[in-house]
Amino acid sequence: MLDVLIFAPHPDDAELAAGGTIVKLVKQDFKVGIIDLTAGEMGTYGTKEQRLKEAQTAKKVLGINLRENLALPDGRLPFLKDEQPAFTLADKIREFQPKIVLLPYWVDRHPDHVATSHLVQQALHFAKLTKISLTFPAHKINLAVYYELNGSFTPSFFVDISEEFEVKKKAIMSHKSQFKAFTREFLPFPVEERCRYYGALINVAYAEAFLTQQPLQLSNWKLLLKSD
Ligand SMILES: [Zn+2]
Predict the structure, then answer these.
(1) Could you tell me which of 74, 84, 209, 54 has the C-alpha nearest to residue 146?
(2) How far is the CA of 6 from the centre of ligand 1 (A)?
(3) Which residues does residue 59 pair with via DSSP β-bridges, in sequence order?
(4) How far is the centre of ligand 1, averaged over its atoms, from the C-alpha of 23 (Å)?
(5) Structural domain total, the chain
(6) Is 112 helix (H, G, I), strand (E, B) or coil?
(7) pTM for this structure?
(8) What is d(CA 93, CA 100) in angstroms, rounded to the nearest whole number?
(9) From the CA of 148, how far away is ligand 1's center (Å)?
(10) Separation of 59 CA from ligand 1 center, angstroms?
């Protein structure tokens, strides 16, 4: 059983987009897992085996409970036409029964990222339908939360990751075959600059931003009395 399950298209995407938040959740005793849809075998650098090993190294850095890889075909996710991949994901949601699922924002220049967003949305729907028979019984999550890769949205909320930023960086750099240095030249998008920008918006050093399609309610206003 997991509290939070993150679906990611490629083995480095979860940490690039939400690594600081993942570390923060682990610190707060949330049970967190990442399921990567592909092994990233179509990337210019690194073999499938190297990338799976790097993902496991990053798992240890993040301190999460689970990291699986579904070995779907990298670069071809938009061409998966039948229902099976969505059923596979739905069964994972049923198996781990998360309250919260993180998935990529549906606007992105990378076709695999867009396809993952749609695939997870479909899987969340299948997961809750009792009349769809899979290995595990139906499960409905509380909240789907979108994270940014190459696209950008107007965030619904921010997470202060000032204390977690160095661990996020270490988790990203665990993907040695992908990133020679933690700079704009090697990263797919300016990770540090983005976290600094979001941090500036909430008056902290670094932050990550997230989107929800449903409005969030805040019943306990005690949270607003906190000075930090
Ligand atoms: Zn990716």
Answers:
(1) 209
(2) 13
(3) none
(4) 20
(5) 1
(6) helix
(7) 0.96
(8) 10
(9) 11
(10) 17
Give 111 Cα–ligand 1 centroid separation in angstroms. 9
Distance 113 CA to ligand 1 centre (A): 6
Ligand 1 centre to CA of 112 (Å) is: 7
- Residue 186: burial class (beta carbons within 10 Å; 0-12, 13-18, 19+): exposed
CATH code for the domain of 55: 3.40.50.10320
175-223 confidence digits (pLDDT tens): 999 999 999 999 999 999 999 999 999 999 999 999 999 999 989 898 8
What's the CA-to-centroid distance between 21 and ligand 1, angstroms? 18
Instruction: Please give the distance, rounded to the nearest whole angstrom, from the Cα atom of residue 227 to the centre of ligand 1.
Output: 37
State the Cα–Cα distance between residues 224 and 228, nearest whole angstrom. 9
- The residue range of the domain holding 27 is 4-225
- If phi over 0 gives left and psi between -120 and 50 gives alpha, with beta otherwise, what is residue 198? alpha
- CA-based angle 190:191:197, to the nearest 5? 90
- Considering only CA atoms, give the Rg of the chain: 17
